[in-house]
């Protein structure tokens, strides 16, 4: 199975949560972009969301990229003005061709729209949420 370039239409930024320290030792925690890649978005249907539900999180999107990028649950995706927390990462069929991420869309809630990966959140989006930006 091959992942065709024409299927990857959305340029996304992958981010990880990092802590930096100033010269005085003050710690600052921020999201930092480590790579931008082309991706394919798929909004999960209601039944797929129920089947893929983990803990108290409602998964809303499946995002696919070419394999080879070090992406992990707890990282996040920024696509335009939208943000997605990555909950699960899979090497499709263990073929090292494509990586699929199951994500939740973060709903804007003020200046810090996405909490730290250790924060517990429950996000749900309506089935009519589209993947257009």
- C-alpha Rg (nearest Å): 15 Å
Number of helices: 1
Structural class: mainly beta
Distance N terminus to C terminus?
Answer: 28 Å
Mean pLDDT across the residues is 80
Please give the number of β-strands. Answer: 6
**Overall morphology:** globular
Order of helices and strands: EEHEEEE
The unreliable regions are 120-133
Q: How would you characterize this protein structure?
A:
The chain has 133 residues and is mainly beta. 5% of the residues lie in helices and 44% in strands. The protein is built from 1 helix and 6 strands, in the order E-E-H-E-E-E-E. It has a 6-stranded antiparallel barrel with strand order 1-2-3-6-5-4. A hairpin with a 2-residue loop joins strand 4 and strand 5. It is globular and about 50 Å long. The chain starts with 9 loop residues before the first strand and ends in a 27-residue tail after the last strand. The relative contact order is 0.23.
Which tags fit this structure?
133 residues, 6-stranded antiparallel β-barrel, mainly beta, single chain, 1 helix
């Amino acid at each position: 199975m091959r992942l065709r370039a024409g299927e990857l239409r959305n340029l996304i930024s992958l981010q990880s949560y990092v802590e930096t320290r100033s010269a005085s030792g003050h710690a600052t925690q921020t999201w930092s972009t480590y790579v931008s890649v082309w991706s394919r978005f798929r909004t999960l249907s209601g039944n797929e969301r129920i089947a893929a539900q983990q803990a108290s999180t409602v998964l809303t999107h499946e995002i696919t990229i070419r394999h080879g990028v070090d992406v992990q649950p707890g990282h996040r995706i920024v696509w335009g003005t939208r943000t997605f927390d990555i909950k699960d990462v899979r090497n499709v069929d263990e073929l090292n061709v494509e990586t699929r991420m199951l994500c939740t869309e973060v709903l804007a809630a003020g200046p810090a729209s996405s909490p730290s990966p250790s924060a517990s959140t429950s996000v749900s989006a309506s089935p009519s949420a589209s993947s257009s930006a």
